[in-house]
């Protein structure tokens, strides 16, 4: 009985040690990656205004597609 309890605590201690080691190593890797990660590019919040001619063509294409879909 005493050997079983000793074995249980040694196993639990081993698992606890390796899980703690895993958390520490993962945290270190995360901090290293954040340190050497390139800065994100700043993208404009408002996209450039599109050409009105392209909007008219797009509207015509979408209208034709809807008409063809409803004609089935």
From TrEMBL:
One GO molecular-function entry: sodium ion transmembrane transporter activity
Protein name: Probable oxaloacetate decarboxylase gamma chain
Record carries keyword Cell membrane: yes
InterPro entries: Na_pump_deCOase, OadG
Locations listed in the record: Cell membrane
Membrane topology: Single-pass membrane protein
Annotated source species: Candidatus Accumulibacter meliphilus
Coiled-coil positions: none
Function summary: Catalyzes the decarboxylation of oxaloacetate coupled to Na(+) translocation.
Cofactor (UniProt): Na(+)
